[in-house]
Amino acid sequence: MIRPIRYWNGVPVPFLTAWSGEDPPPQALVVRHGRQVSGLGFRDEDPAVDRQLNVLWMRMPAVPGVGESRWDTVHALRQRQTMTRSRCQVCGGGVLDARADQRLLFLFGASADRHPVGEGERTSSPPLHATCAQLAVQHCPFLRRGWVAALVGYTVDWGVAGTVYAPDTLTPLTGRVDEVRYFSDPVALRWVLATRLIVTLHEIDPVTEPTSPPATSPEPPSPASPASIRSAPSGSPSGSTAGTFPGGGGPAGTRRSDGGVLELAHHLTEFNPATRLHVSAACALHRYRAWQLGC
Ligand SMILES: [Zn+2]
Fold first, then answer.
1. Which pTM was predicted?
2. pLDDT above 70 covers what percent of the chain?
3. CA 17 to ligand 1 centroid distance, Å
């Protein structure tokens, strides 16, 4: 069910987006010693709250609507909730009941080679309603340059994204966001402070945009955010399994019209003009600018 979303300065803010009132406090990290191994922990840790699958998660206040929206920051707890509870990254409503077949819709900005979503592809971007996806494509400059989508039968937890700390100094090992896979790297899993859950996508029914991105776009480049991970598995087929919207889009090389967007919603049998005031979390993930909303 689609839920109302919050506004900041007249701009709708996706459910996934963090607010300044939710800025992470100092994490009070310590080394915790077990019977045979040691790992990262909090000084006043509550495993029931601070861990999932024995992985430590970043602490963030959960006060959406307090302060300013942090367009380039994903709230760690809400990202995990939307993934594990099949909730929409834009409005926060449940998505399992959005379709009779209970398949989940995932939407991404198109890669440079515009390959479709592939079987086993991994992502930290949660599912969303078709209506929310439609409005995301309408409003987000990143997605307006090109997008791919897929209906997904089921997802499998792959691992986490976060910061891996050095055991001896408790400082980050690298200056970037690391991806750590469950069960395959037990050492890194003990020393990572997770911020996002990564899943793999299965039983893929790709829905792709058949046109090329617009040749002339007024929007400035939107830097890719580490908050949005989309990686095709090695060896996956490229460009051979994609479907297209029935009658969607125009000839290659032309700018996609809003009609193509509407076809997305109609194809997914969920379009509801009464719920137009939604905007994609993907916009926030790509440093969406308020003035680009036209609000
Ligand atoms: Zn939604």
1. 0.73
2. 70
3. 13
Q: Are 21 and 66 in contact (CB under 8 A)?
A: yes
CA of 87 to the centre of ligand 1 (A): 8
Question: Is the pLDDT higher at 260 or at 274?
Answer: 260
- Provide the pLDDT for residue 284: 42
Task: Say how many Å lie between the CA of residue 175 and the centre of ligand 1.
Answer: 33
How many angstroms is it from 5 CA to the middle of ligand 1? 9
Q: What are phi and psi of 148, to 5 degrees?
A: -135, 150
Ligand 1 centroid–CA 85 distance in Å is: 13
Buried b vs exposed e over 222-231: b needs ≥16 C-beta within 10 Å? beebebbbbb
Amino acid at 82: T
Given a cut of 60, is residue 102 above it in pLDDT?
yes
Residue 235 Cα to ligand 1 middle (Å): 33
The answer to whether 42 and 56 have CB atoms below 8 angstroms apart is yes
The 10s digit of each residue's pLDDT in 162-218 is 999 999 999 999 889 999 999 998 999 999 999 999 999 999 998 865 554 444 444
Residues with CB under 5 A from ligand 1 (ion): 2, 88, 90-91, 129, 132
CA distance linking residue 144 with residue 72, whole number of Å: 18
How confident is the model over 14-29, as pLDDT tens digits?
A: 899 999 999 999 999 9
Helix residue ranges per DSSP H, 127-245:
130-139, 141-144, 186-191
Q: How close is the Cα of 91 to the center of ligand 1, in Å? A: 4
- Please spell the DSSP secondary structure of 173-185, one letter per residue: SSSS-EEEETTT-
